[in-house]
Amino acid sequence: EDTPDDRIDCPELRMMQLARERTSIPIPRVHDMIPDEPPPGTLYTKATHGIVIMDYVHGDLLGDIWPQLNLWKKLWVVLTLRRYVKELRKVMQPYNGCVGQLSVTGQALDCDLPGLLEQRNEIYSSYDKLKNSYNRRWKWKGQDERSSYADPLTLTLCHGDLHKDNIILGHDGQIWLIDWGYSGFYPQWFEYRRMFIMGSLATCNKKVIVPKDRSWQLLSGIVCDYDPWTLTWYEQLCDVTLCKET
Length: 246
What we know:
The chain is of the alpha+beta class. The protein is built from seven helices and nine strands.
């Protein structure tokens, strides 16, 4: 069996199932999920907690071996990830409209995507509602309405956490994607911004602080399609306090 029982409403596993079914991306097969209580002091008390039983991928985390890869191997990794992102963008939503992850019934869930929808605890049942939320803030800032947010593209399936410790170079010669906890249906440019953010943060790898990876930031534009206008627009919006829903 490829997925846990539908009675266990775990959005992350549901996104993994959808990506496995609709793309050629190597993703570990999930066999079961045993519900469990969240660990003491956890920050994600609203999330579904459990012990997930899935296939073990024999390979190396990209973060551990990236410095040792030659230029051509790195280029192969980047172009493969670019192909994966393009495949994800072709996946149609099983339920129309909702932003973010979905419950088993297709109900929209709280959006919590660090760097984009962080700690908002808001629910967007349609892309138009997210656009309206952005544009209220834009108008509140006094900006020209001609520069308001009007993305013509539809929501796309995003992994949402493309950093080197979530990518495995398998001994089978394939590149595997793991940790789909931030996956969901979002505007296309969210994937780029999230990958860029992952390159801008210092990480702790085997008890050693690894400094921000400028090369990963640059490569994110190749993997996810650099969109300077949208990103500049969003940066200008970020310093505005969110206008409350009326």
